[in-house]
Specification:
With 406 residues, this protein is an alpha/beta fold. Helices cover 39% and strands 15% of the residues. A 6-stranded parallel sheet has the order 5-2-1-6-7-8, with helices on both faces. Helix 1 packs across helix 7. It is elongated, with a radius of gyration of 25 Å.
Length: 406
Amino acid sequence: MMTPDGIQPGPHMLSGLRILDLGTMVAGPVAATLFADFGAEVIKVEVPRRGDTVRDLGPFVDGQCLYWSVENRNKKSVTLDLRRPEGRDLLLQLVEHADALVENFRPGTLEKWRLGWDTLKARNPKLIMLRISGFGQSGPYRERAGYDRIALAFGGLMGITGFPDRPPVRIGTSIADYQSAILGAFSLMMAIYHRDMHGGEGQQIDLAMYESIIRFTEVLVPAYDRLGTVRERRGNKHFAAAPGEHFRTSDGRYMILTVSADAGFQRLAQVMGRADWLADPRFATHEQRWQHVDELNAALAAWIEAQPVEQLCASLDEARLAYSFIYSIEDIMNDPHYQARGTIASVPDPHIGPVKMAGVIPKFPDRAEKPIEPAPDLGQHNAAIYGDLLGMSEQDLATLAEAGVI
């Protein structure tokens, strides 16, 4: 921690870092949560009385939002109206005590409130500022609103997802938000490392959500650039998996099995009793197999559906082939592997009791894992942050609360 009055390093990997989370909904807040999961002090700044929009989305248990519980765990909550001069001044005081600030407003919003990068940096030259937006802080579309689906569409992923005879399909979770959160946390950590290990200054990070999508689209860009290939929707087939599909099993479930390497294909042919495939020149290489993927998939589908499930899994395991049943959340919660690794954690919520959610990921086996603290109530830490950190009196806080500033 670079400020002399900062929190002290503690037992967890990111103890000693203080992050101001001005974000709303998913991308910005989750980037901050990834820091909180490993011990950073994350102070979430919320609109007075209303709070973060995600609090209103549900699903709810006795009035408590489960979405909020998952994505804002391990944080402290203060309320602050940044549109008010008094709120602006309070934030600038908090900035003096922070390592980093995360925001995902539409570009120009903080500048409108006179809280742009130049203002914040002047108050704390060591501050790192992560800015996540739909289209970035520059470019002709910078002022457009951008959400998860918008980024999926503009980034090219939605256009290649689904079946060719039907409209494009969104992925089942907010993947653009989450990829932006992961890249945001990674970039924030890089900037902190550069500042603290190489004597660097504070800096701002400009992350566009659509860029977090286009970065992970395999060879979509170079294939078009050099070969003129416009990838289309292929359903569950992929050019790097021949054979490869979603196959129905004898008990009515679906299994994913894909094979790319020649050695893997040879083991599959052997376990299926298809020695003829090994002698067939059409299947000698993956590129050749891809030209005949439909034939291979049809044969594999028939073989999988004909096998008793236990025997099928034993055969695939013996052949060291990669496969998985397509799990529902019920399957996940009952699976012994999830249980053995503690992938799902139970977090004690003071209002509704224990809530199960994905635990802290990734795991560091040689370190004790930080217990997950429940997501905070709105403004729960106003007294602790404004009083203890900024030295404000109870009367100061009461006056600000009455005026609607906090």
